[in-house]
What we know:
A: alpha/beta, 4-stranded antiparallel β-sheet, C: mainly alpha, two-stranded antiparallel ribbon
Amino acid sequence: MPDTPLLELEDVTARYGPVAALHGVSLSVGEGEAVAVLGANGAGKTTTLRAVSGTVRRGGSIAFAGQSISRRSPESIARLGIAHVPEGRGTLTELTVHDNLRLGAYVRRDREAVREDERRVLGYFPRLDERVSQRAGTLSGGEQQMLALARALMLRPRLLLLDEPSLGLAPLVVAEIFRIVRELNQQDGLAVLVVEQNAALALEASSRAYVLEVGKVAVEGDSASLRRDESVRKSYLGY
Amino acid sequence: MLLAFDWTQLAQQIVIGLASGGVWATLAVALVLIYRSTGVVNFAQGEMAMFSTFIAWSLVHHGLSYWAAFALTIAISFLGGAAIERAVIRPVERAPVLTVVMVTLGLFFVVNGAARWLWTPETRSLPNAFSTRPIDVAGVAFSIQDLGTIAVSLGAVFLLWLFFRFTKLGLASRAAAVNPEASRLLGVRVSWMLALGWGLAAALGAVSGMLTAPALASFDQNLMQPVLLYAFAGAVLGGLDSALGAVVGTMLLGVLINLLGTYVDWIGTELRLPVALAVILGVLLFKPTGLFGRVSAWRV
Amino acid sequence: MRQRALGTALWLLLAVAVLVVYVLAPRFVSDFHTRDLAHAGVFFIAIVGLNLLTGYTGQISLGHGALMAVGGYTTAALVVHEHWRDVWTIPLAGVAAGIVGFLIGLPALRLSGLYLALATFAFAVAMPSLLKKFSGLTGGGQGLRLLEQAPLQVTGLSGTVTLFGHSTSQNHFLYYLTWGIGLVGFLIAWLIVRGRLGRTFRAVRDSEVAAASAGIDLARAKTTAFAISGVYAGVAGALLAIQSEIVNPLSFTFLLSILLLVGTVVGGLGSLPGMVLGALFIQYLPDLSTHVSTAQGVPDFVFGAAIILVMILLPMGAGGLLRRLAEPLTTRLYTRP
């Protein structure tokens, strides 16, 4: 394990207006690690990701590659190499698939590499390749999720934040998405922080996991042991 | 019957209509630009264009040629538009729509007042953009002025289209208008995209003003008020969220109004605008998105 | 129980205070300013109506100046062509504008948000042209002059008015007439807002889909709102005609419509008391702007800048501020400790 984790959250709070959603969350993601954040609805999972990407009012300490990002704007956080695939995917529906991907690489200046990445990414998602000139709004839910993921990859991020990738999608599509994520993590060393309601899937795809309850970390540990731990599964994960 | 009909006159009136439409079109595209990026109709767009026209006049008055003044004014207007967005729109970016509409109404008075203060109310004129000679096309005489106006208007809109379609900045701008939250996550500085949109809209408005003024013998601070109304009408006809619609809508409107004014006596000059507005209303009731728009004028 | 009684007592006290101010105000200001206040009263009536439409039912209208024109010209036409006494034309002016308001409400059933704003704006813009076109009735570009009609009693040249045997100065009469009607109008609006119709309006504003699925007839609600606000605008227009003694197309340009909306928003959408402040704002700010400088364009500039500042600082208008200030008091009165 490297000395400084890639991402480190210490006692992070967050609120939506007057309502506090996180009450002191501490977690970390190491270089090249895949970490899952689990918990029931309203536990604060999505908010945690938003705190990292800067899209919610937050307090506490958030450090990325040793630098503090707790005061940065979302735009500058993206420039550091953190790609957030939000809940609801954030598809730019009016734009074509190709334009969505181009935009994913907005902050990059290496045009050749961007073109290469687009080819590579379309290779991962042949269905997107077929629809490259179509308006993104005409894609199915599963395809839009793939597009959102592909777009995030165009950033060549060091850390991928994935929010509920399985939401509203058929099991086959979900399995495909997680397979690709696992591959990216294991082969390319992409660090992943994935938020999921479907705990089983998330535990299979990650090496460590945190379980949130009411805005705080209730349980943490390596995914394999959590999977085996029946009491944890029953009380926090619903299966 | 067909031979007795004056085709020449029809052709000429169509071109004249297209020329008025062209001037309205550039302003209409400016309105669409701001509507798409900021979500409001900028009621001050016409006054901003008028202000730009006065700047052009001052430049010409100080010795610049028309086209040099044209270019410089566009640059100044771009900066002015962006500055206005930063100063006055940004503070209310997250306020309800009606609040922002109010701000643009306030801006209407601010810009109009500033123009009245900086330049005296006497009328003045801009030199002709094009030669006033008529030109012969297939045996019909057209005014170079009209053809030139159509060309410059469409050219300006076309350049803008190229920018949005093919440049990275244009892409980011489009994205920021469609989904600002998602765009932020990709590193787009959405706030600056808004300023860019306002700058481009102001530049387009300047084009509109600088094409309107020379066609008139003289102009004053009320120059752009009728143009704004026709631009609204044309933009609504074409669909407020479609630039193509705005262009087609205003050109169509220009031709329609001109033909109606020429061939239907009862309408005359006073009722041209109400007739145009009635046509718009009619279209909206049957095709609520306008001819090309996608966002429905109808409530769900 | 005691809290309720206290609350009611305070409201009664407020009502009495308002009445006292209404009755006594002209004693404390010059005759000239009484005239100004009467003019502000015209705005007040119009924007109370507009608030019912825009603030409570959520329908934007940039055309209420044109509805005022309908009222104003109805009064003028009746006085000039049919020799009515001006004050008796007011109800008819209101009805006429109400009908036109209803007709405008019909396309509103299908247009939303900004499209509605533009459609009503178009109506406002077209109005002067329409008025000039049908000159037989409207006197065309010259307009109609109420002053010269012999049977006219309100504005005798001696400057006094006789109504039901009592006489007062012209400006005082106009003030009392306008604000009297204004207070009645306010009361009616308040009753509407508190009653079922008000709840219907608010439901339509908050979510048409939800309102429709709750069984609300959207068409009826919207056209009713337009009609009612039209009546208010018509009455205001009639009073304006009576005050100015002349109507012409220039009295009712789209600038008036903009001014009315500014007054409504600055006063506070959904706040009836705020409308007093809104009316005073649009009455006095243009005047005050001329005090800054009478140089060409500066008053407009100041006026526009003031609107922008108010919108930035008080996005909920004066009414919002009033509500925030009154909150500690009202929560104390209406919630259990």
